[in-house]
Amino acid sequence: MVVCLANWVIPGPYTKSAGYVAVLNEFLRLHLAPFLMINLLTMVDRQAFVDLDYNISINTDLALQLRGFHHWYDYHSTEVYLNTDNEAARSLGFELQGERRWDNGRLFKVSWTYNNTDMRDDFFNNHWYRAVNSPQSLIKAHYVEPLFNNRLRFGFEEIFVDSRRTMSNNSASAYHLFNINLALTKPIYGFEASLGLYNVLDQHPRMVGGPEHTQDMLRMDGRIISFRLEKSF
User: Fold this and answer.
1) Is 1 exposed, middle or buried (0-12, 13-18, 19+ CB in 10 A)?
2) Which of 44, 73, 77, 225 has the fewest beta carbons closer than 10 A?
């Protein structure tokens, strides 16, 4: 079963750029809406958001989702709240996700997000460069296995983060993290407990520092063990 919806919103004053978007909205409504879930939103002048979503359920246990997006911002306007020193930004990418569920509660989910975000620091030239702390690829895999008649749940996840540009124009290397979790699904005498082992392989990836840091890159913690015990009354 495929779910297809369309939604177009153009709030605020009708400006010249909003007029162009209205024409594009009409084209999408007539030609693409029957096949895709479309979201096109213009918040104010010189900002545009285009999202195309495709969802399909092969059966009750298997679902796939594909989302494409193109976001464009022009900060050379007094109407826009400025949270960056750059004049403009553009982002183009997609998200692909698959999920499989079993009757016994087993779950497997994998997703891949590709994001190409560029910034422009001068309104009067066309020099674009890669955005700071913006990985192009983000991949996640998640698996859950019920144990002992679903009294316990064992799960693990693998996360991959692509390389990122730093504020000093260096490159923070790509890294991956492997996490394990074991948790009670049903309270025992009012007690709930979970045990987590994070960064199992004891990696020390570099995180991108912000303007408040003296370092360009920050060293992440290694392996972490977490135990949680709760009592309900």
Assistant:
1) exposed
2) 225
C-beta of residue 96 within 8 angstroms of C-beta of residue 69:
no
CA gap 229, 227 in Å, rounded: 7
Domain boundaries, the chain: 54-231
Contact present, 175 and 203 (Cβ < 8 Å): yes
3-state SS of the chain: helix, strand, coil percent to 5? 5, 55, 40
Residues 164-219: tens digit of each pLDDT: 999 888 999 999 999 999 999 888 888 899 999 999 999 899 999 888 888 899 99
CB 55 within 8 A of CB 37: yes
C-alpha 117/C-alpha 71 separation (Å) is 9
Burial, 151: exposed, middle or buried (Cβ in 10 Å; 0-12, 13-18, 19+)?
Answer: exposed
Looking at residue 19, its amino acid is G
- Residues facing residue 229 across a β-bridge: 193
**Model pLDDT, residue 60:** 79
CATH topology of domain 54-231: Maltoporin; Chain A (2.40.170)
Q: Which amino acid is at 146?
A: P
Q: Are 206 and 217 in contact (CB under 8 A)?
A: yes
State CA 230 to chain mean position distance: 31
- The model's pLDDT over 63-87, given as tens digits with 9 standing for 90+, comes to 999 888 887 776 555 444 444 555 6
- Asked if residue 135 lies in contact with residue 118, where contact means CB atoms within 8 angstroms, the answer is no
